[in-house]
Amino acid sequence: MMDWLAVDWGTSHLRVWAMAQNGTVQTRRTNDCGMGTLTRDGFEPALLELAGDLLGTGKTPVVVCGMAGSRQGWAEAKYVATPCTPPGINRATHVQTGDPRLSVHILPGVKQTNPADVMRGEETQIAGFLALNPKFDGVICLPGTHTKWVHISAAEIVSFRTFMTGEMFALLSQRSVLRHTVEGDGWDAATFADAVSSGMSNPAELAARLFSIRAEGLLSDLHADYARARLSGLLIGAELAAARPYWLGQHVALIGDDKLCKAYADALGAQGLPVERTDAERMTLEGLKAAYAGLKETTQ
User: Is the N or C terminus of the chain more exposed, i.e. has fewer CB atoms within 10 Å?
Assistant: First the structure.
């Protein structure tokens, strides 16, 4: 029997889990109705279209994380300032809905004043990781479009930095002159490792090394697999150089897409740093479950 809905609402996707009271998943559904495709009045209909048939006649708690809480989302869920524990249901925004069967709570993001930074959605994955690893002290890296490096101590988010590495890779590989050289989705691990080393050792030359990818493609027929791996390696290497204060000598856990996390694990492994890889979807769901547990406590 379904008792509540766990919702991960990103920019490009919507994921819903129908949950039993004991924390087991009854049904999982997903579509591409992300925040980026919706106006503010479109969120409730989008949720009902995907999961409305799962609702009973009573009021169903819905715990939401991600971009539904952004300024352009369903309702703005304010950021909580660091240092802080990953914000739970007590900081959530309760959304008024037209359908009386819904009781929607959107979890807030986390902000940092100096240097200025924000996260929205990753804090729920961090909460899930800490629920499973309550004694963890170290750094959580969340590779993605905007990669986060997060310092965790005593179950708190102490500080974090965001790197636009994934977005830069997408822009360069799809919209720059390099798109002709890095076509496809091939890969070469040795080329990637060499490029990471180059990017770390001299990040100031990043822009010049990037153009060399194009030049070598023209002059030496550089294979697209090698070109793509080099582009990724140079960008991640430059990121690791800047993020060194976060990962050097630390226990690092990775949360994110499997393929991308492997690239980061390989890059960090080359520096002699063992890393812990996790299942990103499980971390999200565990974080939503932790928030729902807090909701149950407040209603008992």
Answer: C
